[in-house]
Amino acid sequence: MSSDNAGATLLKGGTVLTMDSEDSIVEGDVLVEDGRIVGVRSGMSILNDFEVVDVSGMIVMPGFVQTHVHLCQTLWRSFADDMTLMDWLTERTWPLEAAHDEATIRASTRLGVAELLLSGTTTLNDMGTVRHTDVIVEEAGRLGIRGLFSKMLMDNHDGPEALREDPDTAVTEALALASGSTDPSGLIGIALAPRFAVSSSMRLLELVARASQDKGLMVHTHCSENDDEVELTVDRFGVRPVALFEGLGMMGPNLLLAHCVKIDDRELGVISDSGASVLHCPTANMKLGSGIAPVTGMLDRGIRITLGSDGAACNNNLSMFREMRNAALLQKVRGEPEALPAMRVLRMATIDGAMALGMGDLTGSIEPGKRADITVLDPNNVCSVPMGETAGSVVFSMGPQNVKHVVVDGAFLVRDGRLRCADEGDIVHEAIEASKRLKDRAQL
Ligand SMILES: [Zn+2]
What we know:
Blueprint: E1 8-17, E2 25-33, E3 36-41, E4 50-54, E5 59-62, E6 64-69, H1 85-99, H2 102-118, E7 121-126, H3 133-143, E8 146-153, H4 167-179, E9 188-194, H5 202-215, E10 219-223, H6 227-237, H7 241-247, E11 255-259, H8 265-274, E12 277-280, H9 282-287, H10 295-300, E13 304-307, H11 320-332, H12 342-349, H13 351-356, E14 374-377, H14 390-397, E15 403-408, E16 411-415, E17 418-419, H15 424-441
Parallel strand pairs: 1-4, 1-5, 6-7, 7-8, 8-9, 10-11, 11-12, 12-13
Antiparallel strand pairs: 1-2, 2-3, 5-14, 14-15, 15-16, 16-17
Helix pairs in contact: 2-3, 2-15, 4-5, 11-12, 12-14
This protein binds zinc ion (ZN).
Residues 68, 70, 127, 222, 258, 310 line the site of zinc ion (ZN).
């Protein structure tokens, strides 16, 4: 487990937050061979050909799984603050997405992936944009993060012409991306991503529904983020978003619904019965004034809820620590301090996310047989000592400053708090320059 994933490494002497079905915490070692976890127990004997990494006093946990991210938006961080969702989209995000070229998409992807890795995320579900999705996939793959990627599908809106495509051509292109993805590492998957009902024609949604069923592809979309979106959907289609997806036969375990803030009781029942997953983005929901998703009600109904930071343009960071903390606090703020306890939030941030993305057998927990996607946290920081109960310390006290090592598929992508898969200085410089060019092109 050096720069590649060959060989064997023993992470020795940590507190292992396994996130297995029992939420077991093991004081001991994690053995990784050829990118796979082969043992989790105390006092493993050390063989000569192991690389031994001393993690005593540290927390060893599965890397975070972020289920809703827009890597293409990282370049307009801090450039779209204090706006409502529809103004944020039409005045900033759509013009800037339309102005992207290959070079700016590449810089945006590199900045976003670097931030995700340095804050402990090892798997993401990216929504992509209309053009240059292949560049996002290529650059994320080069950096070594695991992910599900999509070409954004939009055909029916008042935004820039560059973001409007013929639905048949767009879906054909999205399917070509899926069939052309011959990623030998197994790190990259492809999904279908109609942005939301409001920017879609019925023809586009029908094509997506059929393609998803025929090819077994996951569908990633925004759903009921705020009142305006629900109203616009009713105006166009005569029904609310969940009923629209239900009528198209899209509801099922392959459907990934970002936000679900404005969801009524009937819709909760539909989502629960179908096995669709909710991608909860608490910070973006607060910042855009969208509201508070009924997370405890969803959990009571057995709905799988996962976490994502959405984009840097509406958050403005991509750290899972922020999402975990805000998810928990938003449920407690109504006077229920016992709501959404830390270990439950950690499950949302790891194994539940992996299961939602169809990767539950690959990642999301530290168990023999899974790929080695591991984040090591060092609690010895002024922000997080003294450490109390392990899960609570991670969720409520820690942050990116505690991330010591990040391993994806057996490879150290972050070591001793530094990015190893690329030069951080180069990424920052490229992002600043690309952001200027992009805003000039968008005339913003
Ligand atoms: Zn989003």
